[in-house]
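Hi everyone, sorry if this is the wrong subforum. Our group has a chain we'd like a structural model of before ordering constructs, and none of us has done structure prediction before. Sequence below.
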Amino acid sequence: MRTIGILTPAALLVLLLPLLFFTRETVAQSASEKWIAPAAEAAKKNPVQTNPGSIGAGKKVYVQRCLSCHGTAGNGDGPDAVDLGIHPARLSEVTTSESDGALFWKITTGKKPMPRFGGRLSETDRWNVINYVRTLAKK
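Answer:
Right subforum, don't worry. Here is the predicted structure as tokens:
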């Protein structure tokens, strides 16, 4: 039997298999908890005016960073959603119940499996995405 380092492939599988279940369980547990932004964050106002320029810029960022999980229309049906183990938020519905500040906080901080975008996107890009996502609820 071929070995990998000092472990056989079967031994390696036995060691790694519990991690797979732990990760899926952790994601499922995390997904079942209500995700609520702190009140101070939820109260923040969007400093970027909603206009065609902001919506267009937000759409570009959305297509690059969000569409793969949240889908074209924000229904949580993007091509990568199946691999997550949970159903991504239906942004077309969430945007009617969440403040701009709450959405900004969630985009900034992330929650497994959604990455945090605070260090990946500028504040303006995050606000533009919110302006764009708001248009999905109207479709």
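For your construct planning: The chain has two domains: 1-33, 39-136. Residues 23 and 85 are 10 Å apart (CA to CA).
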